[in-house]
Predict the structure.
Amino acid sequence: MDKMDKKMLKRTALGGILDNPVFVLVLGMCPLIAVSTSFMDALLMGVSTAIVLLLSNVAISALRKITPSAVRLPIYLMVVATLVTILQMFLDKYIPDFYASAGRFIALIAVNCIILARAEAFAGKNDVLSSLVDAASMGLGFIVAIAILGGVRQLLGDVLGISIFTAPAGGFIALGLLMALFNAALFFAKGYAARREARKTRREARRSAKTVKEEAL
Amino acid sequence: MTITILGIIISALITNNIVFSQTLGICPFLGVSKKLKSAAGMGLAVTLVMTVSTLFTWVINKYVLLNLDMGYLRVIVFILVIAGLVQVLDILLKKFLPALYNAFGIYLALITTNCAVLGTAMLFGGDAPADIVTTFVTALFTGLGFLMALAVMAGVRERMETAHIPRFFKGFPIALLAAAIMAMAFFGFSTFSLGG
């Protein structure tokens, strides 16, 4: 693997943060708000979605050379829907409580825009390894986002008793505030990285100027 | 009967609004609500597809899936039906109603992956399906409820264009907060019921 590939892979692996599916790409909003009234449900929903994302990305990437581009969307949908059906059976048998409380939203993973967006934007065009890394990173990004949202809503709604946070309206508020917080954090982190880079270039410029001077002497 | 239908309509439009109460279809709600015109196109396209596809999936569920005891195939079958219907509608509208087709724009194709459509189809395609009239009226008014939510949101967001918004709240965060306030207003109707 040459340097270019490694750089791209690193960028892909950071996708979960820099292109966070929730806070930056604003995808997969429905389960995010519907199934985040408690931390545990949110976490399970995140993991379920991430597993389907991972498996479907790998399958779609492996099939990309024999997928005719005109009918790629129906094929992606079939792959994802099959995985979701397996997931439904698994959850129904092993975690029935969560399966009941998440209700329709497990079935709706099949049309989750994160999964189809990654299939269309990434897995359908890249090799299996990169698609795996992309799905893992994006999946983790989603798990972290929905778990934080679930934690915040449970803390404010159930523990502190501000009941609006268990209603959909509270989901919108919590998500809006978290998104603003993420924007601010990313802004300052980028500012810090840029300042550090600028300091480094200045230092190097000084050093080279010094060497030039010394050589002249 | 009239009262029941009225109750269903109010429930589907307001108390059980697809966006604010069922939290479905949030992606297009946030993505396509910057301008009133595109919001109307998207809302109408969703209403059309939702009504037609819910009727189709209701029939398939009741007479095929439940008869053959294959309820577990629901997700796959429903997605296929919706994707197929969107394709057919796309072709039919382009041929017979080009003006409407242009009003829908690209939104028609996007609807295949709209979770509001599959969500409504799933709601009426369960193990114990409701009768066809209830299904039709609810699907139609759920779609109109989506159109209403989108139109209201677009109105608010067009005004926000000129407002001074703190830097980190620009774009989606402020849209979500606006949606929250609207959801609270709709939440106020949740105790309201009429004959059923």
Q: What stands out?
A: Chain B is about 70% helix and 0% strand. Chain B has one domain: 24-189.
